[in-house]
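are you around this afternoon, could really use another pair of eyes. what follows is a protein written twice so to speak, once as letters and once as structure tokens for the fold. i want to understand how the tokens follow from the sequence so walk me through it. anything you notice is useful, everything is just below.
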Amino acid sequence: MLLNQRPSFIVWWEDLHVGVQIAATFLVALILLWVAHVALLNQPVGRGLIYAVFWAVPVTVVVVGGTRTERARRLRSEGRDPS
């Protein structure tokens, strides 16, 4: 693999529709954060869920925002229009 090539998973993820990226990221973040709050921080299940929802929102924004930015940068460097 050349240094400027992206792994196929990254290209596949970047090419997904933004709505799918948001849904998938939010769901994974929600589950992982809920487990972390309940198992690691000994929060009650309900409170852990509230904290998980609260923190899953900014995690989703950061991951999807970063993905969209990197995709646009990659397309610009390849000479294609990012829109």
